[in-house]
Amino acid sequence: MKKYLFKSLFLAALAVIALSGCKKEQSVEVDKDTSSAEDNAVAENVSSDIIAIGSQATDGNTSLGNFRLADASAVLSSCATVVRDSVTHIVTVTFNGNTCIDGRTRSGVLTFNYSASPVGSRHYRDPGFSCTVTSNNYVVDGNQVNIINKTITNTTNGGNPNTYNPSTTNETWHITADISITRPSGAVISWSCDRTKELLNTSSVCPASDFVNFPANDNIPIDWLQARVGITGSATGTRVYNNVTESFSVNVTSMMIRDFGSACNINGRHPFYIGSLDFTRSGHPTRHLDFGSDASGNISNGCDLYVLITFTVNGNPYSVVRTF
Predict the structure, then answer these.
(1) Which is nearest to 68 in space by CA: 45, 99, 47, 110?
(2) 3-state secondary structure of 171
(3) CA–CA–CA angle 240, 141, 172 (5° rounding)
(4) Half-sphere exposure at residue 54, Cβ-oriented, CA atoms within 13 angstroms
(5) Which residues contact 166 (CB under 8 A, 6 or more apart)?
(6) Three-class SS of residue 248?
(7) Residue 271, preceding peptide bond in cis (omega within 30° of 0)
């Protein structure tokens, strides 16, 4: 398995144009420099991981089953500890430098402060819940991460938990981030995003009984090991390397979907396998990447061993198989 199972939403297609099994003949020369795409990929992965870690840690589930190694009930015990302070409304996740279940090595501290949430909204799943995320010496696979600003707000039902019914309404969150990352190469990435996250199978992984007498009965975490999540929105960034500054932007054009259940689990990682986006690097044409689509929610591109990505540059289509 490669160091990054799913290194990015973009890098696979950008890096292997020359290796494409069905490259369309074309007269224009396609730029093959993937450095900015790779740096954006790292930022995307870092931000996505922090959100996933926070979603489990602040949902009242201190096991973080998608990340920890050990027994099934405490899958993070060999790479992190989780402390939830219900008085200060702060959750602290401390990584010890060991490898987590997704194959990534993490060290340092992530702190999730939800003290500004409305009374009763004390879990990630509660409508109206809002938290800020900070970091302290947080490092992922050698990438130094500094969270300048990151907020996660549960916007389900307009933030009103009193009339919320998980069996009829999907959970949603608004996510903003401003992050700086120093790569092992010395490149410095400044990256920001404005995203919406939706729990696409809320009715099956979030018990409606939990909200019958909210907040008194609000005590059953979302089953994140079976969650199916969609992402929409945009991101922008700059990278500075050898005194050269370059900018890039990303816009999701069709919801990007991940499945944390068995449907799309490759050695503990869960790549996006449905959706599309546009990636634009300063001074270069926009690349449109299509990861596939299936209205029924079934996997349409062989997620078990590879991800098939179709992308378009200057109107020229390519298909690339990303193996793991």
Answers:
(1) 99
(2) coil
(3) 85
(4) 29
(5) 202, 203, 206, 207, 208, 210, 211
(6) strand
(7) no
DSSP assignment, residue 263?
G
User: Beta strands of the chain (E only): which ranges?
Assistant: 80-85, 90-99, 105-113, 130-140, 143-154, 172-182, 188-199, 228-241, 244-259, 274-281, 287-290, 306-313, 316-323
Copy the structure tokens of residue 324.
């793991």
Q: What is the DSSP letter of 149?
A: E
Q: Which amino acid is at 213?
A: N
Helix (H, G, I), strand (E, B), or coil: what is residue 96?
strand
Q: How far apart are CA 63 and CA 262, in angstroms?
A: 19
- In terms of pTM, does the model score above 0.85? no
Strand-pairing partners, residue 95, are: 80, 108
SS3 85: strand
The pLDDT tens digits of the residues spanning 258-279 come to 888 766 666 666 777 788 888 8
